[in-house]
Each structure stands twice: as structure tokens, then as C-alpha cells.
């Protein structure tokens, strides 16, 4: 199989952008140094933004419910979540917009926590200004996003375990007992690692082998 | 251990090393070198006849050199596999066969000097890295006199001496006179928690290991005097405090303070000078034997494997997990997981727990038999492509093929494309679309950032895996830096197209930073080499155009370098202040005319 390169673009999503913006407080994590209502207010004036609000905990169950409902009620087709790092919650919110009927790639996050509120703690004015800019940037990006579809690839049901100490042995056995083939590679002539050298081990004080 | 050796689904490759890993989640191609053992593993019955006749005597590594073995040997009695092997550098017999006594002694004819190293390739869907630890070598700590004084042992040597299967059959003896010591002292934190020598972190296991050793001693020799010198005792695990209390109740003395120096008396007894920080007094203790509680370091192979697989390390040299709380056993690279001390010092229980967790994460990934791949891949616009071949040249994954001779446009194999975006940045004809990180999407962010008061702002391009993660780490650590740094996230610094930089300067940005993984740590093999080249090229162009090249900075920041990130932001702010309004205006004018 040689997948070619024109698969991802599902054609026909040329509808005019209708963007929803959510500025998360994260309790006080963000709200203590960023004026979240003000950020939401400022984003509401941007082109294509249909709806912009602040929200206490975007990732919480009620938070997600509210956003999903908004997507449906307002026919939003793009969403900006201004909250924590995408490295944390991008999968959460991708799933959320997908549940509400959008393509998961039509969501963008603005990092207002790790890269704003937490690093400019005593500077509400500048942190808020930066948050506004970060949201502007995300709105601009989300406007240009294209829906993409994931591709399914075959996978080899086999694991390589590097290192035959206690951890490697345990992982190999667990996998093998679940029915997966395992190749266990050990540099030394025997498996066992450090543990094999120990006499008794805490807390049970029994033999290690 | 024997279960692992016998399991029909486990293929055991010992005396073997992984030398190369290619491919991606679900489909890794692994190259392994299996070193020759010169004994047929499957035929050897471990009778040991060969070793009886072998004339070469060598220190036995398993017993920390406290016992000896032959040049043909089985690693240790319960070894898996238990078959014998020859250390060919020690053997006298091969080529020309001058000795070969073992060959004659072996009934099963399993010894063969003509064996050679074997190269094995494996295809796997996931990888678990469990490379373990290396004990700290205390020789450099001269004050403890390890190797100078024979009765100063490491904790591992001590382990072998009290082990029933060890060289002294489990009875503790002093190396100098082979007599039972009347008193034993333990020194904690050797190679750990030190700013001077060794490592700064707590090695986590040595406190409990020492407590265990004191209990073993008190069980066998109730009258033995046992003392422990420590900074503080860390007995935080389940049931650990109990063991500590039991040890003290049995009469083990815990002395708060690490020895400053020691000397040997005429009877080979160690005289220890220590400032007891509980009493504030300088004390002297005479002990027949001293045991150094060694700290642990990452296994020596850690860095080599990190480079082969494009993984990340913490400053301590252990593997860095994708997220310290939510993905503690995942590597940032999909399909790779960590187990045991490879990720940080830990005890057996924790290693086993983590190993099971890693196994389940691998099962979770594999059980469907297929995986969905992120559609963040590149796409060629055939009409624009001039078939110059540049993209194929830069792609770290060989995912692009171009028929330069016949001018047939480039084609991307999207299963092989990892999505770094280097090709899109390097194509001079704008013939490549990088999905989810298109020119339009990124330029849009740059423009939005610079709409108001651009002169007050710092534009930063950060790669997802290292620098963006490093910025997050600065956040988690609450490191404060100027509030005008704005990050544009790209998957790889290789994606940062020249035109993004010019767009920034044309939009009025005083300074621009491109940041990515350290050279050698790139998540996309070596795509950041192209970043480096491109920035060098840009610097030259800036000089030619009369723009101060310092205004464009390149910095490698790893995911663990929060401090470096915050410091760099402060530097950038200082740099920004040095750029005058006229300078910015000149640049804008210059670039708009181009
Ligand atoms: S989405 Fe992120 S920032 Fe918002 S509440 Fe959840 S964790 Fe906090
Ligand atoms: S576990 Fe104890 S001995 Fe080991 S480094 Fe930590 S404090 Fe020191
Ligand atoms: S670099 Fe651009 S023009 Fe050259 S072969 Fe690749 S896609 Fe075609
Ligand atoms: S250079 Fe990067 S984005 Fe382009 S084809 Fe290769 S892996 Fe994919």
C-alpha cells in the first residue's frame, strides 16, 4: 500500500467561518493573572467570531457540555479554546468538537496558562494584553484551518523490549501473556539485570530471583 | 526470570544490542547485533565440563570481582539463558587454536570458534525502553578511599558478600583478613545529592537498601555493631517506615552527618571522622568495614539509544516522559514507552509497576491491529512542482520521491511522512502544502500578533517537542519572564520558512527567535540541521540587506530546559530594547520594497 498525498482534504467545507471562542479560567490558575472576561470581550469583536465567552473549567464535563451545545445551537464550525497547553488537552478538545459534529482539526488552542498566566504572575495588565494577542493569533489560525481525516495504517502486533532487567522482564511477560510476541534484547549474556545481584529485597525481604 | 526464558511468545536475544531503529509507530524496523557466544545456546546443557578445563582465570563481574570465573563461563548459577559463553578476548584457544581444551571437553560439541556476530532485523509495532541503571563509581570520591582501602566496599559488593549464592556463601567477611567484622558502617548518598561530585538528585533506593542490609546483618549477627551515616533517611514507601523503625529497635545507630574523611588503622579498621549535625560535635568512629551506599545513574547506553530513536532526556540523563503526571510511561514519540530506572531511579516495586503500565500502554496501542495516523503530512501541488528534487533531499524520512531526470513532479508517501514540514519550508516554488501548518495558517498568526504595537513584541517560533514543551515547563515551574514573548507553535523548527521570518520583520517585529530541539535530539531525526542552515543563510541575507543579523536568533531548548527558555526570553527582551523605532521602520520599508 502506498498512500498518496491527496487523501486528507475532504472537499467542500467552504462554508463561511463561524468561530466560537472560549477563555478558560482554570479556576484561578489563569484567572488570577489574566482578566478572562476582558479577553473574551476583546475576541468577540474579531471577524467571523460568532460567540466569545469566558468559562470556569473548559475541560470539565459541564464545560464541555456547554461548548458542544453552543456549537450545535450557533452552527459554529471552528472553535478556539484559550486555556492550558495543547500538549495537555488538545486530544480532549479534539474529541469534544468531534462529538459535536465538527472535524477534530477545526479546533485551535491558545496557551494562556503555561505560557501566560503562570509566567507573568504579577503582571495582570501585560498578561491580559498578551492573552488577547494569543487569542487573536488563534482566531486567525482557526479561520484558515482545513478539515483533515486520519488514515488507518496496519500495525505489527509485536513489541521490542530493550533491557532484560526486572522492568524489561515484567513488561515482556505481561505482553506475552496478553498474546503479543515480544523480542527481549539484553546486552549482557543473561537477563536479570541489577536485581539478580541482590540478596533480599524490601519490603518483603525475600529472594530476588 | 525463568518464565521469561521459557515463554513461547518471548524471543530472548542476550549479548545483543539495538543498533538502529527506523520507521514509525506500528511499524518500526529494528536492527540488532547479536554477539557471538562461541557456544551453541540451544545445545549447551550447562554441564560446565568446559569451564573445568579452561586455564584462564578472570574476576567474575557478577560477583563484582569478588570471585573468579573462567574464560568460558555461565554468567551466574540462575542465569537465563544458562548456557555457557566464551569471552573471546580472554580465550587463548581460537585462531590459531593453541588451547581449545574446552572444545575437547564438551561432549555435545557445542563450542565453535568460527561463530560470528549476527545481524538480526525485527519489525515491531511498539518499543519498551527498559535500559535500567548503572551504579555510581565512587573512586573519584577520594575522601571515602574506595580502592585505596580494601575494607571499604560498595553496596553492590556487600550484596554479593551476604548473598548465600555469593563468593563467601553468604557469610560476611572482611576482604583483608577474611574474618567476620565486628562493626560495619554505611555511608549514604554516595554519588547522590551532591553539588560537588556525582549527581544532584536523590537516588531513591539507597536508603531502603541500606536499611535492608542492616536488618540482614542484625538477623545473622545480633551482636554486630552497625552504624549508618546519613543526611536524612528517606523511607517514604509503603511499609518502609516500619523497616526503619525495626532497624533502629534492633540497635542500628543512625548518625546524622556524612563522614568528612577516613583513615585506616594498623588493624585495617577504618577511623571515620564525622560532624554529627544532630549534636553539632565532631565524632570519631572505628569500624571494621565500611559500605558505600551507591547512587544510581542512567545506563551507559541511554544516550546512544536516545539518539537512535530521537527521544528526549532530562538534564540528569534519564529519559523524559511525555507528561510527568498524565503520561508517565509514554515517550513523546508515539509507540515508545519507558519502564524501570531508564526513566529515573526507582525500586523494584516501582519498576514492576511501571513495567506493567508500559505493557498495557503498548497493548492499548496495538490491540486493534491498526493505528490511525495523524493527517499532519505534506502534500505536493503537482502543477507548481518543478521537480527540482530539493524536498526529497531534505526529508529525513525519505518520504518523497522525485524523478528529477524525467521532470516528474514529487510524490509524498504519507505513511512515511512524519510531518516535520521541512520540505515545505525548503521548496522554492511553494509547491508543498504542509497540512495543519500551512503557510497561510502560520502567516495568519504572525500577522495577528503584529497588528497592534509590533515594536513591543517578541516573535518566537517553537517546535512542538522541545522548545514549546520547554516553554510549558517554564510555566509549570512558574519561571517568570517578560510578558511580550508570543509563541507560534510548529511541529519542527525545520518548518520555519524564510518567508515567515521576513513576514515578521516586515510586520514590524523588532526581534525574532527560532527555537528547536538540540542538534542530535531532533524529533524528526535531523530536520533541525536544515533549520540551522536556513538561519545561517538568513543571517547572510540580512547582512547584505543592511538589517542587523542579531535581530534573528536561533536557540536550541529542550523540553526539560524551562530555565533556559525563561533566560532566553529575558535575553530577547534586552535585545528588543536595543532595536530602535527607526531601525524597525527602515526594515519595514526595505522589505516592503523588495
Ligand atoms: S481546559 Fe486546561 S486551563 Fe481550562 S480548566 Fe481544564 S486544565 Fe484548566
Ligand atoms: S535514597 Fe537516601 S541515600 Fe539514596 S540518595 Fe536519596 S537520601 Fe541519599
Ligand atoms: S522542492 Fe518543490 S519544486 Fe522541488 S521537487 Fe519538491 S515539491 Fe517539487
Ligand atoms: S520533510 Fe517532513 S513533512 Fe516533508 S515529507 Fe518528509 S517528513 Fe513529511
Describe the structure.
The complex is a heterodimer of chains A (209) and B (594). Chain A is α/β, with parallel strands linked by helices. Chain A has 2 domains: 19-143, 3-Layer(aba) Sandwich (Ribose 5-phosphate Isomerase B, Chain: A); 158-207, no CATH class. Chain A has helices spanning 36-44, 61-73, 86-99, 113-117, 124-144, 166-177, and strands at 19-24, 49-55, 78-83, 107-111, 151-154, 158-162, 181-185, 200-201, 206-207. In chain A, the strands form 3 sheets. In chain A, strands 2-1-3-4 form a 4-stranded parallel β-sheet, sandwiched between helices. In chain A, strands 6-7 form a two-stranded parallel sheet. Residues 1-12 and 202-209 of chain A have low confidence and may be disordered. Chain B has 4 domains: 2-125, no CATH class; 134-297, FAD/NAD(P)-binding domain; 373-436, Alpha-Beta Plaits (2-Layer Sandwich); 438-593, Rossmann fold, CATH 3.40.50. Chain B is built from 16 helices and 29 strands. In chain B, strand 15 (259-264) and strand 16 (270-276) form a beta hairpin. In chain B, helix 5 packs across helix 6 (240-249) and helix 12 packs across helix 15. The radius of gyration of chain B is 30 Å and the shape is globular. At the A-B interface, helix 3, helix 4, helix 5, strand 5 and strand 6 of A face helix 1, strand 1, strand 2, strand 3 and strand 8 of B. Residues 188-189, 192-193, 202-204, 206-207, 234, 293, 295 of chain B line the site of one iron/sulfur cluster.
Helix and strand arrangement:
The complex is a heterodimer of chains A (209) and B (594).
Chain A: E1 19-24, H1 36-44, E2 49-55, H2 61-73, E3 78-83, H3 86-99, E4 107-111, H4 113-117, H5 124-144, E5 151-154, E6 158-162, H6 166-177, E7 181-185, E8 200-201, E9 206-207
Parallel strand pairs in A: 1-2, 1-3, 3-4, 6-7
Antiparallel strand pairs in A: 8-9
Chain B: H1 2-6, E1 10-13, E2 16-24, E3 27-34, H2 49-53, E4 57-59, E5 68-70, E6 72-73, E7 85-86, H3 101-105, E8 118-124, E9 126-129, E10 133-135, E11 152-154, H4 155-162, E12 183-190, H5 206-220, E13 225-230, H6 240-249, E14 253-256, E15 259-264, E16 270-276, E17 281-287, E18 289-294, E19 296-298, H7 302-309, E20 336-338, H8 348-366, E21 370-373, E22 378-380, H9 390-394, E23 400-403, E24 408-412, H10 422-426, E25 432-434, H11 439-449, E26 458-463, H12 467-476, E27 485-490, H13 498-506, E28 511-516, H14 527-545, E29 552-556, H15 562-577, H16 581-593
Helix pairs in contact in B: 5-6, 12-15
Residues 380, 385-391, 402, 409-410, 427, 429, 431-432 of chain B line the site of one iron/sulfur cluster.
Amino acid at each position: 500500500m502506498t498512500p498518496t498525498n491527496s487523501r486528507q482534504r475532504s472537499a467542500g467545507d467552504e462554508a463561511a467561518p463561524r468561530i466560537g471562542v472560549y477563555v478558560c479560567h482554570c479556576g484561578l490558575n489563569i484567572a488570577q493573572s489574566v482578566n478572562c472576561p476582558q479577553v473574551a470581550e476583546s475576541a468577540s469583536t474579531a471577524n467571523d467570531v460568532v460567540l466569545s465567552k469566558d468559562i470556569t473549567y473548559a475541560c470539565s464535563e459541564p464545560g464541555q457540555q456547554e461548548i458542544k451545545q453552543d456549537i450545535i445551537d450557533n452552527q459554529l464550525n471552528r472553535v478556539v479554546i484559550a486555556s492550558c497547553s495543547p500538549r495537555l488537552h488538545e486530544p480532549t478538545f479534539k474529541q469534544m468538537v468531534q462529538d459535536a459534529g465538527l472535524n477534530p482539526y477545526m479546533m485551535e488552542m491558545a496557551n494562556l496558562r503555561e505560557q501566560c498566566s503562570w509566567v507573568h504572575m504579577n503582571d495582570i495588565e501585560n498578561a491580559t494584553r498578551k492573552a488577547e494577542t494569543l487569542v487573536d493569533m488563534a482566531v486567525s489560525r482557526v479561520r484558515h484551518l482545513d478539515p483533515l481525516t486520519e488514515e488507518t495504517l496496519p500495525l505489527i502486533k509485536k513489541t521490542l523490549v530493550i533491557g532484560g532487567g526486572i522492568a524489561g522482564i515484567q513488561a515482556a511477560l505481561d505482553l506475552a501473556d496478553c498474546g503479543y510476541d515480544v523480542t527481549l534484547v539484553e546486552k549482557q549474556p543473561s537477563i536479570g539485570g541489577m536485581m539478580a545481584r541482590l540478596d533480599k529485597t524490601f519490603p518483603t525481604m525475600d529472594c530476588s530471583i | 526470570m525463568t518464565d521469561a526464558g521459557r515463554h513461547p511468545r518471548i524471543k530472548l536475544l542476550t549479548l545483543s544490542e539495538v543498533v538502529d531503529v527506523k520507521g514509525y509507530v506500528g511499524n518500526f524496523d529494528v536492527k540488532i547485533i547479536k554477539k557471538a557466544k562461541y557456544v551453541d545456546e540451544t545445545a549447551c546443557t550447562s554441564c560446565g565440563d568446559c569451564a573445568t578445563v579452561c586455564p584462564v582465570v578472570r574476576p567474575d563481574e557478577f560477583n563484582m570481582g569478588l570471585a573468579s570465573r573462567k574464560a568460558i563461563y555461565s554468567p551466574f548459577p540462575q542465569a537465563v539463558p544458562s548456557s555457557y559463553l566464551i569471552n573471546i578476548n580472554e580465550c587463548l584457544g581460537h585462531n590459531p587454536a593453541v588451547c581449545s581444551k574446552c572444545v575437547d571437553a564438551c561432549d555435545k560439541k557445542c563450542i565453535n570458534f568460527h561463530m560470528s556476530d549476527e545481524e538480526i532485523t525485527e519489525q515491531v509495532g511498539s518499543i519498551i525502553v527498559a535500559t535500567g541503571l548503572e551504579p555510581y563509581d565512587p573512586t573519584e570520591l577520594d575522601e571515602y578511599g574506595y580502592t585505596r582501602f580494601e575494607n571499604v566496599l560498595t553496596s553492590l559488593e556487600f550484596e554479593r558478600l551476604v548473598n548465600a549464592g555469593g563468593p563467601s556463601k553468604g557469610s560476611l567477611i572482611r576482604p583483608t583478613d577474611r574474618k567476620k567484622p565486628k562493626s560495619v558502617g554505611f555511608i549514604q548518598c554516595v554519588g547522590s545529592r551532591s553539588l560537588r561530585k556525582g549527581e544532584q538528585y536523590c537516588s531513591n533506593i539507597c536508603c531502603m537498601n541500606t536499611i535492608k542490609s542492616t536488618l540482614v546483618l542484625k538477623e545473622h549477627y545480633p551482636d554486630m555493631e552497625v552504624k549508618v551515616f546519613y543526611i536524612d533517611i528517606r523511607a517514604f514507601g509503603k511499609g518502609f517506615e516500619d523497616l526503619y523503625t525495626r532497624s533502629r529497635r534492633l540497635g542500628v545507630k543512625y548518625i546524622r552527618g556524612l563522614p568528612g574523611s577516613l583513615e585506616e588503622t594498623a588493624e585495617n579498621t577504618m577511623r571515620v571522622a564525622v560532624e554529627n549535625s544532630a549534636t553539632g560535635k565532631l565524632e570519631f568512629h572505628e569500624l571494621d568495614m565500611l559500605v558505600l551506599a551507591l547512587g544510581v545513574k542512567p545506563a551507559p547506553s541511554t544516550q546512544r539509544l536516545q539518539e537512535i530513536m530521537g527521544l528526549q532526556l532530562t538534564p540528569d540523563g534519564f529519559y523524559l516522559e511525555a507528561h510527568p503526571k498524565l503520561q508517565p510511561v509514554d515517550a513523546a514519540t508515539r509507540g515508545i514507552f519507558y519502564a524501570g530506572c531508564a526513566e529515573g531511579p526507582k525500586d523494584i516495586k516501582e519498576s514492576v509497576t511501571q513495567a506493567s503500565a508500559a505493557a498495557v500502554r503498548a497493548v492499548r496501542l496495538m490491540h486493534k491491529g491498526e493505528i490511525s495516523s495523524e493527517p499532519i503530512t505534506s502534500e505536493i501541488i503537482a502543477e507548481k512542482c518543478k521537480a527540482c528534487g530539493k524536498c526529497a533531499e531534505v526529508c529525513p524520512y525519505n518520504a518523497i520521491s522525485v524523478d528529477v531526470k524525467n521532470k516528474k513532479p514529487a510524490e509524498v508517501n504519507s505513511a512515511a511522512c512524519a510531518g516535520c514540514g521541512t520540505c515545505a519550508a525548503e521548496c522554492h516554488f511553494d509547491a508543498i502544502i504542509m497540512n495543519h501548518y500551512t503557510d497561510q495558517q502560520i502567516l495568519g498568526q504572525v500577522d495577528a500578533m503584529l497588528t497592534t504595537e509590533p515594536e513591543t513584541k517578541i516573535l518566537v517560533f517553537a517546535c512542538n517537542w522541545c522548545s514549546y514543551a520547554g516553554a510549558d515547563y517554564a510555566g509549570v515551574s512558574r519561571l517568570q519572564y517578560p510578558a511580550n514573548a508570543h509563541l507560534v507553535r510548529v511541529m519542527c523548527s525545520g518548518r520555519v520558512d524564510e518567508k515567515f521570518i521576513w513576514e515578521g520583520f516586515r510586520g514590524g517585529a523588532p526581534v525574532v527567535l527560532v527555537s528547536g530541539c538540540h542538534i542530535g535530539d531532533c524529533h524528526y531525526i535531523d530536520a533541525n540541521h536544515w533549520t540551522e542552515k536556513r538561519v545561517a543563510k538568513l543571517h547572510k541575507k540580512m547582512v547584505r540587506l543592511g538589517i542587523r543579523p542579531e535581530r534573528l536568533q536561533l536557540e536550541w531548548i529542550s523540553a526539560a530546559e524551562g530555565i533556559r527558555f525563561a533566560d532566553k526570553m529575558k535575553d530577547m527582551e534586552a535585545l528588543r530594547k536595543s532595536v530602535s523605532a527607526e531601525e524597525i521602520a527602515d526594515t519595514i520599508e526595505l522589505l516592503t520594497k523588495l
